[in-house]
Amino acid sequence: MFKCTRCDGDLRDGVKCSVCQERFDFPCAGLTEAGYRRLGEDRRNNWICTSCKGAKAFSSLNLPSKNTPSKNTPSVKSLSLVDMEMIASELKSLSSQMNSLPTLIASVKAIQADVADLKSIKADIEDLKLMKPEVADMRTSLEFVQCSVESLKIRMTEINQEIQTLLKTKDDVVQLKQRLENFKDSMREFEQSSRMNNIESKGVPMSPSENLFEIFSKLGDHINCVIPKNQINYIARIPMRNDKLNKTIIISVHNRYLKEDFVVAAKKRTIVPADVGLRGDNRIFVNDHLTLENKMLLNKAKKLAKELGFAYV
Fold first, then answer.
1. pLDDT tens digits, 186-199
2. What does the record list as coiled-coil region(s) (predicted)?
């Protein structure tokens, strides 16, 4: 056991200065244990500490030890690990949501800045290359830096390619959404167009043995707009969305103008079940057969017109 002259630590092994005979541990001596073992016996016996070599001569070299890095020199290994974790985090963010593209691009720029720093470190290490055994570990560090820079370049290229792919995918999604909206508009127009010749009658009481043709004929007599039976394509009851007990009557006619005349004539009258030979005190309404979406739109328009005091919609 002996104490290191510089750090006063207890150690079992170290180096001894051939001039001042002081003992130092490997970090304080500026050597690695492996590097020291590779020195020949003569060079180990003639090893001189930094103090004895002269502060001025050694300070011009400014060689940091691998085990005791300078405060101004960043750790290459730790810096690379941080960069790789940052890249992994950014890739995870890219796959989860496309809205984080600006953040990823900023991270790529940060990686580029780190690569520039690594290149600067590489240049500094090249300047410090001297034909002495102490620089062997520095050469290893230089090779590590070179590998790290190449790995980062490859990863940055991959990230840039992924960004371009995501940007293209985003454009494709926007185009698909627009196509879907256009398709929905076309379907809505087609659905309403298929009802162009239809009449919808609400409020007509139901009975087990009812004759819809007879009810429709009486309704035409009441409003003075009779549509002949041979002009009727079909007539049927369909369930109502908010009333399962009462069903709406749908009458499809062959001529759209007959339908329009019938609806206009019906709107001029207040119709009750007694007018068509049925019992009940509710009103009967006759309208165009609208799609559900157009019915909602019509109701909103009527409500707004009432709030604004409009006489007609």
1. 888 998 889 999 99
2. 142-193
Q: Which of 88, 204, 96, 221 is nearest to 155 (CA)?
A: 88
Cα separations in angstroms, 27 against 3, 13, 19:
13, 12, 19
**DSSP conformational letter for 309:** T
The alpha carbon of residue 128 and the mean position of all alpha carbons in its chain are separated, in whole angstroms, by: 48
* Contact (CB, 8 A) for 286 and 262: yes
193: Cα separation from own chain's centroid: 39
The CA–CA distances, whole Å, from 218 to 198, 205, 255, 273 equal: 18, 14, 20, 11
Taking Cα atoms as reference points, which of 212, 211, 200, 222 lies closest to residue 275? 222
pLDDT in tens, 245-273: 778 999 999 999 999 999 999 999 899 99
The C-alpha atoms of residue 87 and residue 147 are separated, in whole angstroms, by: 16
Q: Give dist(CA 214, CA 274) in Å, integer.
A: 14
- Comparing C-alpha atoms, which of 77, 44, 65, 41 is closest to residue 135? 65
- The identity of residue 243, as a single letter, is D
Question: pTM (2 decimals)?
Answer: 0.44
Q: Which two tokens stand for residue 203?
A: 């409020």
Instruction: Tell me the two tokens of residue 253.
Output: 């006619």
The dihedral region occupied by 269, where left means phi > 0, alpha psi between -120 and 50, and beta the remainder, is: beta
* Alpha carbon distance 6, 23 (integer Å): 9
Contact 215, 236 (CB under 8 A): no
Partner residues linked to 252 by β-bridges: 198, 234
Hey, which bits of the chain come out as E strands?
2-3, 10-11, 15-16, 23-24, 198-202, 232-239, 247-253, 285-288
| Mean local confidence (pLDDT), 128-133 | 55
Average pLDDT across the chain, whole number: 80
